[in-house]
Structure formats: structure tokens, C-alpha cells
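Entry:
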Amino acid sequence: MVRIAMDPVEGSLPAPKWAARARRIVRPAVVSLLARKEPKYHPRGNLFEKVPFIFHLHPHHCRPLKRFWLALILLTFAATALPQEPTAPPIPNSAQANTPPLPPAAPFTPFAVSAPKTNAPAQPSLIAPFDSAAATREWLDSIPADQKAKSNAYFQGGYWLILWNFLITALIALLLLATRTSARIRDFAERSTRFKAMQVIIYAIPYIILTAALSFPLTVYERYFREHQYGMATQTFGPWFAEQLKGLIIALILGPIFLVALYAVFRAAPRTWWLWATAVVVAGTFFFSFIFPLFIEPIFNKYTPLTDPKIRDPILQLARANEIPVTKVFVVDASRQTKRVSANVAGFLNTTRIALNDNLLNQCTLPEIRAVMAHEMGHYVLNHIVKLALFSALSFLVGFALTKAAFDLLVRKYGSRWGVCDIADPAGLPLIGLSIGIYFFLITPLSNTSSRVIEREADIFGINAAREPDGMAKIALKLGIYRKMEPTPLEEFVFFDHPSGRSRIRMAMDWKAANLPNGTFDPSVGKPK
């Protein structure tokens, strides 16, 4: 062992450098401590005056001791952080007497200390797990069997209506071409005026009337007799027919305007018209979305402000929370036409409007209304109008490209027989409609899937905004009056443009299971009430 002396001793080994440094630090401290005086009371409140302290020394003497104090502090913290004996419980606050106690927190241990092993058997958990699949099954089983059979028959009949609508439309187009009726209307338009745009308008008006008249038998069955057969309609034939005439007048106004723009593209770009026609369709979609809530809907229904604050204020709260610029909620008198529940958030910028029909208002509770309105707000907040317009643009781009190839091929083969010259000839409109109709009939599963994905996104948004899982489940049952609740996966993929009732209830129950408060369980949670 090396001896460290205060002064060098004759004959001893030379001290190492660290010993010399220690001597320089320790000697002044020892001398100062031996020469200290008694503490002197300071009248101003300082307990001691001129008490020698180690940090009064020169700074370079203090650095090693500062490291010592840092190590001492860390050891002290480690000692105090170890589990201590339990202390007395705090005195309860009378203001919080009714508040349920929180579960005890696990003790904090800064080091990985393994818990001692015991042979005591594990205690069973007092919290029963929430089974969202079983809860979904209970909701679905609450539907009466006769009601489920009726809704299934109604919805499955719609599968055949998709086919019949396609076949009737195709037959009308072939009839107008094969009988040269389309060519005769075109000849009449050309004799009436030499302006191309006016020729398109003169052709479009009788074309729209003819197609509406020829398809009217299927329309009256599908939209009137069948709706009454299944108890969905409330309107007599007279008012219903009057509304069909209103729709025809609107088509006679907007249809020719759209066709004028479309045929202007055909004449300007006969080879690349399919690109520019897609742009016309997208622009027309946005234009129609802008004018529909302001000018079209009020023609068929009356919109009045909702005055009941118990319903209005929660809806406006949801709107404000999601940055929707509205100050009113409107009620639509849809009950004079149908028994269906419905709502929407439509428009752009200052035309945005929140509306719910009076069936929703009269048939549903506030949690159900909040669930529906939050879903509709999801469409607005998530820009689903824009997304659907982009999907429509992509669909029409592909469809118009295929239509161009089919149109050119068929005109070369049958053009002289049908009296159709080229794409800019209005007489070829039935052929364009037939080609694009076949295309959209074949991509029905893709179109429905895109819509179903959008609706599911709105469902997710709505349940997180409204936080009404039971309300969402109950409204799914109400929609199940005219929608099949439990389709096969193939059915849902091909025919459903909305998620099935089963999928929506399961989503609500999964959300509820994930948000149950810790330490509590209500056996009635998730069951139909």
C-alpha cells in the first residue's frame, strides 16, 4: 500500500500525481476546519456567520467533492424510491363522498425486481369480459322473424330490379336505333336550325320524353306499387305522379344543357373526346351538388327550421365540434311520401345545410338521431363528395375509353342501317347510352364497394363523434326494415352500397367493448332495450 503523507518523508517513495492533487485539496480543508470559530448569532436571521464550508474553497478543489455529493444524492433518491410501509389513508372529502374509489395504483419500482413466487391460487377476475359478437347476435335476434323475412324479400327483389332496369334501358336504346327513330329526331333538329348547339337541344327534348315514357311501366311498379306493397310509401298515386312530372321537367332543363357541353367536346376533339368528356362529367357533378340542396330539393319537399332545442342544440354542438359552418338545422316533410328515415349534410361553403326528415325526428330517440347526424357529418368532414367525384371521374374515364372503341366499331358496321354518322352526330346518343350502360352494369360490384367503403368511414367517424353505440345499433335495426340485415359475403360485395346491418351493429359493439370503463360491468350493456 502506498503511504500518503502530508509532507514528504525522507527515504519514502515519491508520491504519485493523484496523491499530490488530493493533498492540495484536503490540506486547506483540514486547516480551515481546525481554525474555525464558534458560530456567531446574526441578529438579522442568519443562524451562522463565517462558518467554513467546503464550497468556499477554490473551485478546482471543489469539483471532486461535487461529484461525491452527486453520487450521494442519487443513492438517497434510490433509497427513498423503494416501496415503503403503507401510510394512513387520507381523510375523505365530503364533496367527493359519492365518487367511486379508484383502483389502487401499482407501486413504482425504478429497478427490475422480480416479485416473490407464492403457491397461493390465482383469484378469479370479478370483471366479466364484454363479448361483442354475442351482443351483436342478441341485437339481430331481437328482430321478429316475419319482419326479417319481409325485409329480406324486399331487398332481394332489388337485385332483380338492377337487371331489369339495365335490360329495359338497353332495349329502349336498341329500339330507337333499329327503327331509326333517333335518326328522324336528328333530321328534324337539323331542319329546324343550323346552329349545332340548338340542334342538340331540339334532339334532347324528345329523346328524354321518349325514354321516360317507354320506361314508365317499370318506374311505376318499382317506385309506387312495390313501395306500397311492402308498406314503405305513404303517397297516393296522384301526388306521386305529379312529382314524377316535376322530375321530368327538371330533366328537360338540365339534360339538354349537359348534352350541349358534351357534344361540343365531341365536335372539338373527335379522337380524344373521352378525356374531355370525363372533365365535363366531373364539372357537372360538382355543379349539381351545388344547386341540388338549394334549388332542386325544395321543389319536392318543404324545409323548415328545427325549433325544439332538445334536438337542435345537440346536433349543432356536433356541428361546431367538427367545424361545420351551420347555425340552423332543417326538418324535411318526407313523411308525406315515405316511411324511411333519412338525413343529410349537403352543399359547399355558404350553401352547407344540415337536414333530417320528420320520420327520423318522430320515430327515433335522441341517441339514435345523434348517431345518424354524426354519420352524415362524417360525409361532410371527410370530403366524401370530392372522393366520390374522383371515383366517378375514374369510372367515366375508363367507361368513355371503352365506349369510344365500341362506338367506332359499331358505327362502322351498323352506322348506315341506324343512320348514325360519327360521335358528333346526336343520333348516336342511344348508342353512347347503351355502351356506357353495359359498362356500369358490369362494374356494379366495384361501384357498390366504393360507396360501401365511404359509408363505413362515415360510420367510424359518427360513432366516435356521437359516442352512441346503442343508438347506432338501434338505427341499424330501423334501417333493416327495408335492408337485408345478414347477407352472405358475396351478396354484400355485389349488391350492398352501404354496410349491412350486421356489420354496423358489430362495429358499434366492438366500439363499446373497447370503451368500457375499467372495473365496472353492466350485464345489460350491449343488449337490445
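The chain has 18 helices and four strands.
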